[in-house]
Specification:
Bound molecules: adenosine monophosphate, zinc ion
Radius of gyration: 21 Å
Distance between the termini: 24 Å
Number of strands: 12
Strand content: 15-25%
Shape: globular
Order of helices and strands: HHEEHEEHHEHEHEEHEHEEHEHH
Length: 315
């Protein structure tokens, strides 16, 4: 157990989070940028992320998923159609740019100079920051027409943006999410999720961290959102694999296992081979969260990590 871990027993959740964040800055694992949730990463941190990425690939390789490498932005018209602003308006980030003429530029510079809000001089572009790695996938798959009999399986990774500034080092605003996404019949996608619920626990268990799997819900916005969240829990649509990072009582969701039923299939019009609406499921790996969980439990010096864990990650 590291210094900050032992401190969690006697300190409030917020100060335990800040203490761990400070420790990560002090040890040069993360670098402060002045914005909560936006950090530079050390080579050591990236080395752990890459090793974990390869571990996921080893567990998933037998399924022969199709990798697609999307940039961390998605089309605004497609984002608008996705319904994200209905469910999670508080998390979204849109890209804006200056599109004015010279007079507007003068106004912008004057506002900047005077310390006023200058962002009104910008206009929304056609790009929105990707909120979850699977969002650009569904419209892409829809364009390919009906699914083959076996459905499809994709392997994605993206930097994601969520506006949730926090002193909790595990709650970043820009972070990487790896995802496997299964699209097919209800049976196919449920079997996929079951498999990954097992695999995820075996994989994380091999990394020597304490874990549990629990029902979960997404942070749907507002009063209507509370009903959606309750329904998501009641129907067992989301599970998370939790590992204590800054709190034993409130462990951090490091992997998630989501069954969307026919939500995306009907929204994007994805038919199965026999014309039914496709169901979808995804397993998401929070790359930074897993790295932070490993640093928390094994210390910030990876050379000192248990030999068995080093073996799993680096061979
Ligand atoms: P979700 O779509 O919320 O289930 O997110 C998928 C995975 O991304 C989660 O299991 C987390 O490991 C990770 N994740 C979600 N939000 C954040 C965040 N703010 N900072 C870092 N990782 C996150
Ligand atoms: Zn997803």
């Amino acid at each position: 157990m590291s210094v900050a871990a032992s401190a969690t027993a006697s300190t409030s959740p917020v100060s335990a989070q800040e203490a761990y964040l400070d420790e990560l800055f002090d040890k040069g694992i993360l670098f402060d940028t002045g914005v909560d949730g936006l950090y530079g990463r050390s080579d050591v941190f990236e080395d752990v992320i890459q090793a974990f990425d390869r571990l996921i690939t080893r567990y998933g390789a037998q399924d022969r998923a199709t990798p697609i490498h999307f940039p961390p932005g998605i089309s605004r018209p497609l984002f608008e159609k996705s319904g994200y602003m209905k469910s999670f308006p508080q998390l979204a980030g849109t890209v804006h740019s200056f599109m004015g003429g010279e007079a507007d530029h003068c106004t912008l510079l004057a506002e900047l100079e005077a310390g006023q809000d200058w962002t009104g001089q910008q206009t929304a572009t056609d790009i929105v920051l990707t909120p979850a790695a699977c969002y650009p996938l569904y419209p892409t798959v829809a364009k390919r027409g009906p699914l083959p009999v076996d459905g499809r399986l994709y392997d994605l990774q993206s930097y994601c943006f969520r506006h949730e500034p926090s002193k909790d080092p595990a709650r970043m605003q820009m972070f990487r999410m790896r995802e496997y996404v299964r699209i097919g019949s209800p049976e196919q996608v449920q079997a996929f999720r079951e498999t990954w619920l097992e695999r995820g626990q075996a994989m994380m268990g091999s990394l020597g961290v304490p874990l549990k799997v629990d029902l979960a819900n997404d942070p749907f916005f507002g009063r209507a959102g509370r009903m959606l969240a309750n329904n998501q829990r009641d129907t067992g649509l989301k599970f998370e694999l939790l590992i204590p990072v800054t709190s034993e009582e409130k462990p951090t969701a490091c992997l998630s296992f989501n069954y969307h039923q026919d939500h995306f299939g009907s929204l994007w019009n994805i038919p199965t081979h026999n014309g039914d609406v496709a169901h979808t499921a995804c397993v998401g790996f929070g790359m930074e969260r897993v790295a932070l969980a490993l640093f928390k439990h094994h210390g910030t010096d990876t050379a000192q990590w248990p030999q068995a864990v080093r073996q799993v990650l680096w061979g």
